[in-house]
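The passage that follows is intended for readers who have already worked through the single-chain material. We present the inputs for a multi-component assembly, then the predicted structure in tokenized form, and finally a short commentary. You are encouraged to pause after the input and sketch how you expect the pieces to fit together before reading on.
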Amino acid sequence: MYEFVTGPLAWLAFLVFFIGIIVRLVFYVRGLDWKLDRVTYSVNTSYGVRGAVRSILFWLTPFGTHSWRDNPGFTILVFVLHLGLIFTPLLLLAHNIFLQERWGFSLWSMPDALSDVMTIAVIASAVLLALRRIALPEVRIITSAYDYLMLAIAVAPFVTGLIARYAYTHSEPWLIAHVLSGELFLVAIPLTKLSHFVLFFATRAQLGMDYGIKRGGMKSSGINW
Amino acid sequence: MPEGILCNKNKVTTLEHLQALLADKSGKQYYQEMNNLDVDAKALWDLVQKTCKSRIRTWLEICTHCGLCADSCFYYLANHKDPQQVPSYKIQSTLGQIIRRKGQVDNAFMQMAMDTAFCKCTCCTRCGVYCPLGIDTGVMFSYLRGLLFSQGFTPWEMKIGTGMHRVYRAQMDVTTEDWVDTCSWMAEENADDWPGLEIPVDKENADILYTVNAREPKHYPEDIAQAAILFHVAGENWTVPSEGWEETSLAMFAGDWEACKLQVESVYAAMDRLKPKRMVVTECGHAYRATVIEGPYWAGLKTGKTPIESLHYVEWVAEALRAGKLKIDPAKKIKEPVTYQDSCNYIRNGGLWEAARYIMSQIAEDFREMTPSREHNFCCGGGGGLNGIGRYREQRNVGLRVKRDQILATGAKLVVAPCHNCWDAIRDLEEVYEIGIRWSFLKPLLINMIEVPEHLKPAE
Ligand code: SF4
Ligand code: SF4
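Having made your guess, compare it with the prediction:
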């Protein structure tokens, strides 16, 4: 079982993930229409590029925008969650040992204590974000079961991974659950709204170009996000 | 009765049709007929498939329902943080549903969507600046208005407005003759005070082609006279076109994209005909948005720019002040506290906040910014055509509270509002809430404070 989920199934999950996000990006860009969107994407390109880059960088910076600054608690939770989701699996020592054994390469690994902290931080921020969905009426009204499912899919590999690591006995089933939930997460990224993993960059770039080219970007130093 | 006599899916293209609509006071019959208007679900879905591409579909799909857009919307704030006013909720429950149901929606749904698109959103686009994913709900509501319009679900005044553009190439019934007459009347009327004052019509190769909002010839002709005086004092070589002088677009508010195109093409044709160097647009926000920002796209101009360079009035004023073409008498600067209403259309969506700041630094001694200001300013409360729609007067007045509180917080009693919509909204908010403020366009203020060269003064 372990061999299967870490072998063929893992290949399949990575395949769906990589092809999936490329397809999503390609379809997004192909669906842009300068006349319908009213943005000359391929004319005035220097303004477009500047707008797109500004739009992405401002928002990738914690507290870099008005909106992030207006919502400090949320901003911290979101950045902790996303940084943890991306970097913990990449830099985890156990993953890199595994990579080295199976595929003959590995990345820099962080100390186990740090990855434990990051794992717990991911789980904690997900729980707090879920509670926020319940507590705030303006978030509750737009929240559906699908949103909780997304959170669950994203943190499941962290919960199972932590249990597998600290379970003294019977850790194998947890390890298999960990691998499976990780694969589910990978597959879910292109197929669900977790696609914002890549589409965040696409939509931010699009609105940045819109402002950079058409909505004042040529007559000002750029919108102050 | 699927199609009404007044409320139907047809475009208003004749004077008779327009007059019939106007004769229906407050749209009584029009809205009654709307209750029976059929939805052509197939046509609606066809239109969605043709026009709703990856940008909007992705916005609707990846919205993480984080709610960060809530506080950015002045309607949400003005309505005591009513969750139903959260931008994401408003758009998901209207446009989102149309797409999820593949256009299979009924009359009641369409009326709900129309009410939401007009009295819960002014398309101010502020929420788009606060969404981490760059989801511009204001843009989506504008798109939704277009879908609704195609099915005949548009407020009575909007139907009339689009008809005006089709019949008169203006948002009001001002003919070429009316317009030209108003110009010569204004020139004559002010000739004694301003010797040599002219309003040149259809002069070729001028430096400036000046274009206006139809309300000016119709209701505020003195605005045209003031523009003429300022150009005269600044020594500009300018003209107005006899046709193609109207910059506004109620068609844009309604989502009647065909009429939008017809309207802006009349202005671009005037540019072609008269070969001016640049165009200057009067103190109107949505007029500038329609003809200068969006218009080139409706007209299919691949550069995304108007055929000649185009300026909003504040850009021209800032330039004239900088170049010394207009000189302010320091003794006549505004002494009292004064604030400035940044319009969504030419500030947030046009990038002109610096020009406005420069002007204020030159004409006011105690300029006070609103909070928030510039591209983050709240909508005046009357944007997106809302000022003119009787059906939503009450909701509009509730929305005005945010602007009222912003103005009160500055301590200023004078509000400079170089935008017709903002100007109206602020006038109405004073009428409704009586907070003791005054409001003004730039032109009358400037005329009272510029230094007039001796040779332009009337002989004693
Ligand atoms: S801020 Fe953006 S992602 Fe969040 S709920 Fe609003 S539209 Fe959706
Ligand atoms: S565009 Fe403006 S009025 Fe409309 S939902 Fe967004 S913030 Fe509110």
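Commentary: Chain B has a mean pLDDT of 96. The CA atoms of residues 182 and 221 of chain B lie 7 Å apart. How closely did your sketch match?
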